Amino acid sequence: MNTLLIIINIAIFLLLLFLLFRMQKKHISFSKRVFTALGIGIVLGLAMHLVYGTDSTVTKGSLDWLNIVGSGYISFLKMIVMPLVFISIVSAFTKLKLTSNLGKISALVIGILIGTTAIAASIGIATALGFHLEGIQLEEGAAEITRNTQLQETVGDVKDMTIPQQIVSLFPQNPFMELTGARPTSTIAVVIFAAIIGIAYLGVRRKEPEHADFFAKMIETIYTVVMRVVTLILRLTPYGVLALMAKVTATSDYSAIVKLGKFVVASYVAIIIMFLIHLLLLVLVRKNPVTYVKKAMPVLVFAFTSRSSAGTLPLNIKTQHQEFGVSEGIANFAGSFGLSIGQNGCAGIYPAMLAIMVAPTAGINPFDPSFIFTLILIVAISSFGVAGVGGGATFAALIVLSALNLPIAIVGLLISVEPLIDMGRTALNVSGSMTAGVLTGKITGELDEEVYKQPKQNLRV
Asked: Which residues cross the membrane (predicted)?
């Protein structure tokens, strides 16, 4: 009987995939297809949850097959992320228009990412205090850490490293190893390695321009091919969103969400406030925030569903360039740097909230201005090198709590609601990256105002 029910669920899923395929054949916009996939994915997942339950054989068996599409899509995105990050940064150096403002652009992108992360930390602190989350019980969290082998390993790695050692870990060791994503900090290591290659190219261009021209043409060719691969993968987005959203809603621990509902609500309040800060920053440079929301929404929906800033990178860069008019170079810098530096949600709001929550258990007054200032500073510094995939927030929280010598057991307590909160945090991370790109483009004069003002286009995917 269970096998028959699994087959029925798979048939329904295939039918929904065919519906999305027909929408694509009829040239329905990419945004509408993504939103449709999001909606029917939620309905499918909730139906499975209500009819069969979270841990039933039918649900697990069905999701195993659905995961071929969902996890397969994420695997394709991860496949292209490191090559895209590397070639995007090197390509940025080979574009003459960008290299003339290279130092200014790099400083602006990184400065905006770190600055908004500090603001996000402040919002996280204020929200935690406003919702009276301080002084939470830690016993259950300690037990969860004990049970979770992977979390134990992460805790051990982080606790054994000082802040200077963590900074050193950002630097590339073996570039070939870093391109495999072997370490949590591999993404920022690849960015640094690509920047070194780019700087070397600038030196060669001054002394041996003929070799530099050949290298630039080679990089441009590789970049064109890589972006074509990105386009092919992005065409699978609606199908991936459908499968991923069905899995999330079918397997969510709703009892844990109710139990920790206050923290979940406080987290989303902080996320929404920080998103409004992004819009305010756009207003300050005279960019229409409504236009931004309309054009960014498909990207944010995918980030929300996939819980992967790295997986969202291709769509992030395309949207910055095609919809907002940000130059390719700046879009590449903002998108790539935003994977590991200054993630507003994962590295800003979340660690700050957790630190406030556990401070009283360590005998610290969470309202102490000196503690709050120190917390914001450590959050900003430690936001370098946070992994751009699901779980990066846990890594960031462990770094901050360890640096402040605070109990880390709370990380285990909140694992049950991590997926739900991580969806919103990831969308905020990506919004911060795109905001940094638009602001940098506006300040440096490399933003096409007409493209930004145009009505929302259907991304060419």
From this structure: 6-22, 34-52, 72-93, 105-131, 185-204, 225-245, 265-285, 371-389, 395-415
Instruction: Please indicate, yes or no, whether the overall pTM of this predicted structure exceeds 0.85.
Output: no
Dihedral sign, CA of 299, 302, 304, 308?
negative
User: Residue 408, Cα to own-chain centre: how many angstroms?
Assistant: 23
Q: In the structure encoding, which two tokens stand for residue 414, read together?
A: 């909140």
On whether the CB atoms of residues 301 and 331 are closer than 8 A, the answer is no
CA–CA gap between residue 186 and residue 82 (Å, rounded): 9
- What integer pLDDT is reported at residue 103 of this predicted model? 78
| 303-321 pLDDT per residue, tens | 888 788 877 888 898 899 9
Task: Determine the Cα–Cα distance for residues 325 and 290; give it in Å rounded to an integer.
Answer: 16
Contacts of 146 (CB under 8 A, 6+ apart): 152, 412
Over residues 257-277, the pLDDT tens digits come to 776 788 889 999 999 999 999
